[in-house]
Amino acid sequence: GGPTKVIDTSIKGVQFSDSLPLLAKATRRFSLIRTLHSKDPNHDTARYLLHTGYRRDETVDHPHVGRLIAHELGTRAEGLPGCITVGGSSDAGSGHLSPELAPLRIEKIEKPLEDVSLPQGLSPSRLADREKLLHIQNGLFARTHPDEAVVHHQKAYERALAMMRSPHLKAFDIQGEKEALRKAYGEGPFGKACLMARRLVEAGVRFVEVTLADWDTHNVNFNRTKQLCAQLDPAMATLLEDLGSR
User: Fold this and answer.
1) Residuewise pLDDT in 10s, the chain (246 residues)
2) Residues linked to residue 207 through DSSP beta bridges, in sequence order
3) Number of other residues whose CB lies within 10 A of the CB of residue 141
4) To 10 degrees, the CA torsion angle through 7, 8, 9, 15?
5) If we measure between CA atoms, which residue out of 135, 130, 132 comes closest to residue 153?
6) Contact between residue 210 and residue 185 where contact means Cβ atoms under 8 Å apart
7) How far is it, in rounded angstroms, from Cα 196 to Cα 189?
8) Which residues, at least 6 apart from 205, have a Cβ–Cβ distance to it below 8 Å?
9) What backbone torsions phi and psi does residue 126 show, to the nearest 5 degrees?
10) Which residues face 106 on adjacent strands?
């Protein structure tokens, strides 16, 4: 409807919007599923269903599907979690699994490691001394307060410190990629997030989710959808080609 036109894809009989010319050429790289649907009209609960496979239930908190995959397969990236979400929230976390297994959310795409770097004046050796002191204090508290929440709190610190020391932190830095490839993905946040996702998968992270938001285009729909497709098309098509070539 409206001004949107259709174009042929590389699959005979399948057509896309003319706002997705690069994905139309890359259809050999993915499966087009037309039967995925939800009768849930609410945004939050529909996102929950998409990410967990279950409708919201007040008695059960279900885990993010990426977290389940990482839980079963582990991660091959030392110090990094098995599930990372980039650029948005999925309304699903660790669910009934341990809290420290929740997906790691990366919201600052331009500076993803801003909160991982050591503060000015704090050397790795001083950090190690502080870690020993923290371990002693937490150990004393845990012995007098035996509770599951205390254990999870300790593991959260361990996870954070392990990430700070991970040899795979460079996977978050896309500046090492060739300029031509960075431009192919697109210079907006979504393109950068997709390139970061490829690097994270390459480093051994089992599941990476990238979000491009604001498709709720009730107002000025055709213009806004075209603008969103201009971000989606180069980033997703380049990601598929990049993964395929590797």
Assistant:
1) 689 999 999 999 999 999 999 999 999 999 988 888 888 888 888 888 888 888 888 888 888 888 888 888 877 888 888 888 887 766 666 666 666 667 788 887 888 877 787 888 888 888 889 888 988 888 888 888 888 888 878 888 888 888 888 888 899 999 889 999 999 999 899 999 999 999 999 999 999 999 998 898 988 999 999 999 999 999 999 999 999 998
2) 83
3) 13
4) 70
5) 135
6) no
7) 10
8) 75, 76, 77, 80, 81, 82, 83, 84, 171
9) -65, -35
10) 86
Q: Rg (Cα) of the chain, in Å, rounded? A: 21
Two tokens, residue 67: 């977290």
Give the phi and the psi of residue 89 in degrees, each rounded to 5.
-110, 145
Q: How far is CA 149 from CA 140, 142, 153, 159, in A?
A: 15, 10, 6, 15
Task: Using the structure block, give the residue that is written with the tokens 């997906």.
Answer: 103
Rounded Cα distance between 20 and 50, Å, is 24
CA distance 211 to 228: 12
Give the pair of three-digit tokens for residue 185.
């993905």
Tokens of 147: 């509770």
Q: Residue 228 is encoded by which pair of tokens?
A: 């969103």
Q: Among positive and negative, which fits the CA dihedral 182, 107, 198, 31?
A: negative
For the chain, strand residue ranges (E) read 6-8, 15-17, 83-86, 104-106, 207-210
Six-digit token string for 89: 């929230």
User: How many CA atoms are closer than 13 Å to the CA of 67, on its beta-carbon side?
Assistant: 23
